[in-house]
Request: fold
Amino acid sequence: MSGQIEEGIIKRVFTTERMSIEAPHESDASFFCSLWQNPEVMKYVGFPEGLFCDEKRLSRQIARDNEEGKVFGRPLIVRLSSDATLIGECFMGFPDDEGLSETDVKILPQYRGVGYGTEIKKGLVDYLFAQSSARGIKATPHKDNRASIRMQEANGGIRLGEAIWKPSGEQREKSGACDVPYCSYVIYRDPPERKTPCFVFDLDGTLLDTLGDITDAVNRVIARFGAAPYTEEDVRHMVGRGIEVLLQKAAGKKLTPDETDDLVDAFNKAYGENWHSRSRPYEGIKELLDALQKQGVLLAVLSNKPHEFTVQCVRFYFPEIRFEVIRGVQGEGLVKPDPALIGHVLRLLGTDPAKTPFVGDTEIDIRTAKAAGLPSWAVLWGFRNVAELSNENPDFLFKTPKDLQLAASPYLNGFS
Reply:
């Protein structure tokens, strides 16, 4: 961690050409509150009337953060170097399970239009890549905030997609919060000249047999229609394209966007209560992952399961395995086989697509690999049969995890 130390507290985190980014003092709580209560500052983050701030409570939090020497996960002061004027705040989070650090910049309106935001963003990116393990820097500007979007693009940000942030009922009622249509941007770390092999795995049907828990959740949701419950064999052919497609098929009718949202919420609630009731790693999977890890292979997971559940399952069932990147479906709605999604994972890994097998159990996984130029390694212990997978012409087709492990050894020799 770098920065100017003063009485055990990091005061200056980093500097740019015209600004100093610092850990705030307790007395800076009043500045934060005035900044966040400014409608012009907060309108693009969903609070067009500004956001109320408890100054005394914030001051106490600042004191605690300073005692801990905290830099990540807290607001930092932005000050002009020329005359020490406070002009805004910025934020940088710890790297998450995807290897991304969230960043944010807010500047008083009178200081916009002269490149301060872009300069701060570059400073955040440089600091995070130098001082953390972040593989990428994420930001989510409002789709109408052209200045913020220019800031991301000027620093090399790549646009992943768009989504809508929806505040809670309490936020709407108490703070006048509104929906925020946003764009998702990522700035990637410059890839190393990597000779280390990487394997990207699908989750459901490849690493984990989750069919029982998924079927139970689906049946709880469709019970509202008075429909007969599905068997696991029924659901086996519905999965693979993401939760919305699964629920459309299960409902047996075309759903409106509102109906889809309601069913997704209901499914997430039902699945969240039983996601580890019957699910289990397939026989031989733990041994496969352990063997690959010991051979120095970098491992990643890319799933069409909601991101929260993807991370939960991986961490719960494979606590001893290090996965460099874990990615499920997030707000942007990107799902396999969209090549933008696997491209994102490959940039985070910094790996050569032609030398990175994608291992999965469905036609979607094979198409994902082919769309991005990855070797397609299909497995037969999951949710599809040999005829369904053979029709997609995968590069390899494996009956057991042991077969895959044996095939991996000569493949890995090319990296030595």
User: Anything to note?
Assistant: The chain is about 40% helix and 20% strand. Residues 211-274 form a domain with the DNA polymerase; domain 1 fold (CATH 1.10.150.240). The CA atoms of residues 213 and 277 lie 7 Å apart.
